[in-house]
Amino acid sequence: MNSKLNIVVRVDLDHSKAKVIAKGHITIHSVNALYVVAKRANSLKGGLDLELDISGAWVDEEALEMLRAASETRHLPARIDPAQAPCAISVLAHRRHPRQTAGRLAA
């Protein structure tokens, strides 16, 4: 598995949609890179529907919870977007069990 985060953004301004596709390993630290990309995409046009496709990435459970919280509140974290602009973000995650950490394997 590649730990490097690879992010691609596809934007359709005519239909007010953007898709952020992330591959690699998403941790509680690297999730900030996704937030920054989402903020940039969201700033292109008001009312943009933003889909975050992380189905091809390994996502730590804590990072997934953070992304889902942003989706539910429709705002990015204040440290990323102090203005708290509305962000209609949806998260597309793969239906697989999250990767187990070494601590979980030893138990």
Q: How would you portray this structure in words?
A:
With 107 residues, this protein is α/β, with parallel strands linked by helices. Helix content is 28%, strand content 28%. Strands 1, 2, 3, 4 and 5 form a five-stranded mixed beta sheet that branches. It is globular, with a radius of gyration of 14 Å.
Q: SSE order in H/E notation?
A: EEHEEHEH
Helix and strand composition category: alpha/beta
What average pLDDT do the residues reach? 88
Strand percent estimate: 25-35%
Question: Using DSSP, what is the number of strands?
Answer: 5
Total helical elements: 3
Note the overall shape: globular
Largest sheet: 5 strands, mixed
Q: Can you describe this structure in just a few lines?
A:
The protein is an alpha/beta fold. It contains 3 helices and 5 strands; from the N terminus they run E-E-H-E-E-H-E-H.
Describe the protein's topology.
Layout (H helix, E strand, L loop, with lengths): L5 E7 L4 E10 L4 H12 L6 E5 L3 E3 L1 H13 L14 E5 L9 H5 L1
Parallel strand pairs: 2-3, 2-4, 3-5
Antiparallel strand pairs: 1-2
Characteristics:
five-stranded mixed beta sheet, 5 strands, 107 residues, alpha/beta
